[in-house]
Amino acid sequence: MPSQSLFERIVRSVVVLAVLAGALLWAAPAGLAATTYPIGNHSVTFYGVRYDYPAAGQSTWYYSVTSGARPSISHVVFGLLCPTIQILDAGKWAGPANMDALYSGQGSPVPGTFPASPLTDPTTGLLGLKFDENFGRGETKFLYFVVNGNYAAGDMTVGIKAGPGNAYGTVPGPSAACNLISSLGDYVWLDANVNGIQDPGETGIANVTVRLYSGTGTHLATTTTNSSGYYLFTGLSAGDYYVVFTLPTGYAFTLQHMGGDSAKDSDADPFTGQTQTVTLGWGQSYLDLDAGMYPTGPTAVTVASFEVLRDNDTLRFKWVTGYEADNLGFDLFAVQPGGSEMILINDTFIPTQGFTTGSEYYYEANRPDIEVGALFWLRAYDTNGTVEDFGPVEAIYSAYVLAPIDIELPKVPAPVEIEEGRPTIKPRSELIVLPDPETPEKPMAAPSMPVIGPELPIPAPVAPRLNGAVRPAPVEDAS
Ligand SMILES: [Ca+2]
Ligand SMILES: [Ca+2]
């Protein structure tokens, strides 16, 4: 459970109740939303309910009653029909500027000793709590009561006796069916090691926006996490709900549903921030809808290794990513020895496996057309429309070794057009400019990237260590 101020809690409760009830809101002092209901010549204003107040499992309900012109009110009865409800306290309160100031016993509540069960008022015929006190003409009295449960708000009948007549109306009050409120929460944290699990030492993230939706997608309420990273929607009715977390700038969602412990995992879809739908019964709390986030680096993909194994006409590609934030997937390219064209190897786009912490990938192609001595590139596509190229590497000419190799691969972002999830590949002829093929002794320079915007330089190839053998690093100009 989050530690939030009582004021926060009641404001939140009132907002949720008002949204759920579709009630008309108007501004009241101290930022509270209150709703006024005319009853005969009089009126009753509902200021809200404070759950778990003054103690856990208790709720405090705040009203004011205003008498009209003569005849003025001689008593008012709040109908309490839940068979198991107990009145723990009742009296006057100071008004919305100070909801902590409760004056127990003022206003002549009946029954006058607490706890008590509701009594039937003989004048109005209502079973409930009576305030047996005369009002002056136009006088307002602030009245409260405390009951023995976090009851959901339902229709509560109010009976008003004024002169010879009775007036009746309906205002929000404790559920006659004894329904208890439900709650949904409750944590957004910094997943420092990006494993998708709330580990000791990892801390909450404040001020993250969280939106509550019904199971059918209706937006019900919005809140933000407190200074410890907690949020809570309470005062909820039974039903289906989900929440959507909004990423702060510079953060990405961590892995979803890792480790099998719902209390410790992240429920936000890494791409949308939406959680699974949770079904709440009356009086049920689900406090395990959490979101882990981590700061994103300047690039969307890091590649730890990229290897190509050649077995006669078969090319076997293996690459390992360090992390993949906002990555769509990959293409593989080859450049023939002395050639100037980037040849697409894979028939269909190789999608990301969706793990922001990275994955191992394998791809196999029968390509007798790719000659011995060809160079290979791996290209990653970001959702924001940029590409990053990793390479080049040479193939390993062995049928039985595909051990991980530790190389640092250069990468160069360049803009591409993204269409319908499959990146646009420029025509091969536009892709490449390679050095003079007539001077084989000259170290191979990297091909230039396809350019839509300004042409970007590409770093010189890095010499990968292949099976322990180190290829000499290329030099810029052999002459
Ligand atoms: Ca973690
Ligand atoms: Ca969780």
Summarize the structure in short.
This protein has 479 residues and is mainly beta. It folds into 3 domains: 169 residues, Immunoglobulin-like (Sandwich); 114 residues, Immunoglobulin-like (Sandwich), CATH 2.60.40; 168 residues, Sandwich (Immunoglobulin-like).
Task: Report on the architecture of this protein.
By secondary structure, this protein is mainly β. It has three domains: 6-174, Immunoglobulin-like (Sandwich), CATH 2.60.40; 182-295, Immunoglobulin-like; 301-468, Immunoglobulin-like (Sandwich). Helices cover 3% and strands 42% of the residues. The chain is built from one helix and 34 strands. The strands form eight sheets. Strands 1-2-3-4-11-6-7 form a seven-stranded antiparallel sheet. Strands 5, 8, 9, 10, 12 and 13 form a six-stranded antiparallel sheet that branches. Strands 24, 25, 26, 28, 29 and 30 form a six-stranded antiparallel sheet that branches. A hairpin with a 4-residue loop joins strand 15 (209-214) and strand 16. The longest helix has 16 residues, at 6-21. The termini are far apart. The site of one calcium ion has 6 residues, from loops.
